[in-house]
Structure formats: C-alpha cells, structure tokens
C-alpha cells in the first residue's frame, strides 16, 4: 500500500516505466501497470540507498544532504539528452508541478 509518491520520484518512476506523465491511470494497459508497479520499489529503494534527494532543504536524520540527486534520469534535466534515446528531456507544468520526461521514450 502506498500513501503517495513525491514529485521527483513520480517523474523518475514514469521515465523508467516509459509512461508519459499525462497518461490517465485508466488508460494504462495491463503490461504498463505491471511495469509501473515493478518500477516503483526500484526507484524508491534506490533513493533510500542514496539517503534521499537533496536540492534545497531535505536532510537525513544526521543532518547530512542526500545523494540521490546525482542519480536522477529526468528530474531537473530539461534540455539534456535522454539516457536511453538521446532525445531532449522536456519540462512541462502539470497541476502546478514541474514534470520532466522524454517525449520519445514515454508514451
Ligand atoms: Zn528517450
């Protein structure tokens, strides 16, 4: 059971799942849902392993910044090349949240 997923991790999960951020949940095929559900723990355990993602305020309980920002594939990468297909990563604001994705890989 998941209460919610933060914006940074949602961007990364959708990228790894190859799902466009504007897709509605009820349009996902079974195979896409399976891919999505398998990707969620991969991204979250990776972030935990790197002690979280620090851009500004986040600190570990010891007061140290996390290291996961150095392993992100799309978040804050607008204008950079996609690590999968070399297309340019795009930024779009969806529901007042910055969303980063590869328009070629994520359908
Ligand atoms: Zn791509």
Q: Give every kind of bound small molecule, once each.
A: zinc ion
Strand content: 5-15%
Q: Provide mean pLDDT, rounded.
A: 93
CATH architecture designation: Orthogonal Bundle
Radius of gyration of CA atoms, rounded to a whole number: 14 Å
Structural class: alpha+beta
Work out the helicity level: 25-40%
| CATH fold type | Helicase, Ruva Protein, domain 3
> What is the oligomer described by this structure?
single chain
Distance between the termini: 26 Å
The strand count comes to 2
The helix/strand order is HHEE
Strand arrangement across the biggest beta sheet: 1-2
Described by the principal axes of the CA atoms, the overall outline is globular
For the record, the CATH class is: Mainly Alpha
Main sheet specs: 2 strands, antiparallel
Whole-number tally of structural domains: 1
Q: Detail the poorly predicted runs.
A: none
**Individual helix count:** 2
């Amino acid at each position: 059971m998941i209460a919610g997923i933060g914006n940074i991790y949602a961007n990364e999960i959708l990228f790894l799942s190859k799902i466009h951020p504007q897709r509605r949940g009820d349009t996902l095929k079974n195979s896409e849902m399976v891919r999505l559900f398998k990707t969620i723990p991969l991204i979250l355990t990776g972030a935990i392993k790197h002690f979280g993602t620090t851009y500004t305020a986040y600190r570990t309980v010891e007061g140290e910044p996390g290291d996961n920002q150095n392993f992100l594939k799309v978040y804050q990468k607008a204008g950079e090349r996609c690590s999968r297909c070399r297309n340019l990563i795009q930024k779009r604001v969806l529901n007042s949240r910055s969303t980063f994705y590869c328009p070629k890989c994520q359908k």
